[in-house]
Design goal:
Helix content: over 70%
Strand content: under 5%
Radius of gyration: 18 Å
Number of helices: 10
Order of helices and strands: HHHHHHHHHH
Mean pLDDT: 80
Largest sheet: none
């Protein structure tokens, strides 16, 4: 089965990278999928779907051993597993289809300067890490991995509109939390 995936990967360097990812993360992918799906066969299907997605984005992965790559693979596996779970349970999310997209308001200069700083960037990642997985994964794919909205939609198995709404809502949550922190700091 692995040979089928390798046929989809172009270039010897990317094939080697894909093999290394497979060997290093196959158990992690399975564990993540099984913890969501609670079924051996379906978890293996989720791992195969994850590997298929990775064939498309293998060139974006720089360091196979990095925490960033591990998180990236976990995000993809988790999203695919939830997608399979929802299809198995015939569950459909209606909130994304009924949402109205509102243009994102820009951050204030003070907040933007803080987020741009290294300390602010780390704090931003801490805030994102505490968010609900749908916002967290979408924001990470956008901010850390610099995927386009179309790529994020494909990776998460949702519409581009849902990606835009998650990014909008996620940014609004971050902005609100940062503004609250600034207010708390100013009153001390």
């Amino acid at each position: 089965m692995l040979q089928v995936f390798l046929l989809a990967v172009e270039g010897e360097e990317n094939k080697n990278k894909f093999m290394e990812i497979y060997l290093r993360y196959k158990n992690l992918m399975y564990t993540v999928a099984y913890n969501i799906l609670h079924n051996h066969e379906i978890a293996e299907e989720a791992v195969q779907d994850t590997l298929f997605k990775l064939t498309k984005y293998i060139s974006t992965i720089e360091n196979v051993e990095s925490k960033r790559t591990r998180n990236y693979i976990m995000i993809i596996t988790r999203n695919i597993s939830f997608d399979i779970y929802n299809k198995e349970k015939k569950y459909c999310e209606t909130s994304d289809d009924n949402s109205v997209y509102i243009n994102d308001e820009p951050f204030t200069a003070d907040i933007l300067d803080y987020v741009i700083s290294e300390e602010g960037y780390k704090h931003l990642l801490e805030i994102i890490e505490k968010m609900d997985y749908s916002f967290k994964d979408t924001l990470k794919l956008k901010i850390l991995y610099e995927h386009t909205n179309d790529e994020i939609a494909e990776l998460q198995g949702i519409s581009k509109r849902a990606v835009e709404m998650r990014l909008y809502r996620g940014r609004a949550i971050i902005k609100e939390l940062l503004m609250r922190e600034c207010d708390d700091y100013a009153t001390k």
